């Protein structure tokens, strides 16, 4: 299993390749606000662990294993954003909070949160009932 830091890299590399078609060390460094030398070091580790193939002058490509986990990490991020939104968390807190919790939940918890999101989405009156309760609590 990748560490939280490795997950951040794989997730960003996946997003970059999806959106631009490639992921350069400088782009990864910018996206994660880290020094390019840290990126090079991590990319070498990810290569060694078979998540990607890195060639200094040709860039990097995700292996099937890297792609599979990358997609899973991006989906997880998206699910947690939906979850926080549904439970009424303010928009400005959502991204940072997801970045803070996403690596620290078991896939078991992620799957159950997925059920909950599905439960709410299947019936908007449930979301309205929750919002009503929140307004009442805010009044106290
Ligand atoms: Mn994320």
Fold and architecture overview:
Belongs to the DtxR/MntR family. Central regulator of manganese homeostasis. One of its GO terms (cellular component) is cytoplasm. It comes from Heyndrickxia ginsengihumi. The structure is a single chain. This protein has 140 residues and is mainly alpha-helical. The protein folds into two domains: 65 residues, Arc Repressor Mutant, subunit A, CATH 1.10.10; 66 residues, Diphtheria Toxin Repressor, domain 2 (Orthogonal Bundle), CATH 1.10.60.10. The chain is built from seven helices and two strands; from the N terminus they run H-H-H-E-E-H-H-H-H. A two-stranded antiparallel sheet has the order 1-2. Helix 2 packs across helix 3, helix 4 crosses helix 5 and helix 4 packs across helix 6. The termini are far apart. It binds manganese (II) ion. Manganese (II) ion binds next to loops. The site of manganese (II) ion has 4 residues, from loops.
Write the layout of secondary structure elements.
Blueprint: H1 4-20, H2 25-32, H3 36-48, E1 52-55, E2 59-62, H4 64-86, H5 91-101, H6 107-121, H7 124-139
Antiparallel strand pairs: 1-2
Helix pairs in contact: 1-2, 1-4, 2-3, 4-5, 4-6
The protein binds manganese (II) ion (MN).
The site of manganese (II) ion has 4 residues, from loops.
